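Same chain as my last thread, 474 residues:
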Amino acid sequence: MTKILIIDDDDIFSRQLSLYIDRMGYVCKTAPDMKTACRMAEEDRFDIVFLDVILPDSNGLAGINTLKNMPSRPEVVVITGDGDVDGAEIALNSGAWDYLVKPPAFNKIKLLIKRIIEFRTEKIKQEETVLFNRDTIIGESHALKRVITKIARAASSDTPVFITGETGTGKELVAKVLHKNSRRHDQPFIPVDCTNLPDTLAGNILFGHIKGTYTGAETSQTGLIREADGGILFLDEVGDLSPMVQRSLLRVLQEKKFRPIGAKTETACDFRVVSASNKDLKTLVDKGLFRKDLYYRLVVFHIDLPPLRQRKQDIKQLLTHYVTSICYQMGISVKGISKDFVDTLEIYDWPGNVRELINVTHLSIANAMDAPMLYPHFLPKELRINLIKKHISDTGEDDLRSSVFLTINAPDTGQVIEYKALREYVNHLMESKYIDYLAGLSIDNVSEICRLTGLSRSRIYQLLNKHKKRLLQG
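reply #2:
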């Protein structure tokens, strides 16, 4: 049964639209604000969401991604009384199905719902029938599943694909998985590192040369484009291409022909182009740093990879995979992973994404040596220092601020709280929470604790005695 959610604080409009949808035979519910809507979308599975822009607790446009990330991954239709061009552009760029201005014609709503249901029905069929080889794309988060669905769709066609994402998100990995699932899977996958493609050598590297073309050309050389014949040419970090190489590449993509250096005739070449960049190519185009015509040749099917901080629920599964893989590579027994080790990694924001997680896992296993289990104190020192600073600034400061607020705003007893007493209370609370945090890191070396905290050995023992706590694992 199709379920529809209306998010609008206009009760009259919500009731009218809800009654109309009910008469069409669909289940329809309403929510007056974004907070209520998100709670309902977590508890129930909606297929379609009609979303107002101006809500009591937020701007509806800012909530489109949040709604699309809900378990049922609903299609979002923005419907507003204050329509504008900029709002429509933001909505569609955020993945909204459509942007409607109130009051909408009910027959348009009826057709819209019908089209969305047809789309979702077909999508479910495709997801169930397509055999997709994920290879080493690891995780089950909603953000990652959306990417996998896009890869599967891209693999079934032969159009150019453009992959974006921060450094370390796995753009080349996705390109290889796309290749393995395409009709060209038994043909070459040829990567081109565009960051190391100087103008003086680009022609030779891409197109090759004929024997005797210049001094030192004692044999003919096949270029990378020729090597990609029948398969995929992967242009990694394509935003780093120089203007000269961009011009040369554009013609090859248009004609699917190239001329090796020194050759008299052109050579036809059948390849599919897949490109990737951690830069915003549209911004580069607007600044005149990237050719607009090349941009439209490359950016046909777009896959945007989420950073690891947006799919932290995948960290445990990624960690299990890489710990097993690294231990096998090192020829040692596979190490166990403590819960506090996983918890610690889930706090971190991972600016280097999955690549950084792999490096941290390598170092942690090396630090653990013969220990059978990974604990937080095996993590690289830089990461542990970063986590301590983050915990103190984010958690500790917020908790202390809340506690002071509650203390100062306690029920009036007719007495003023002395500043000295309040200061002692705050210091006591901060010390206690700080010791609890250090205990959670499972650091079993007092010298290391002193180095990380900046406290002397005697001061640490003084705090432990004062708060009647144990820090070391013993």
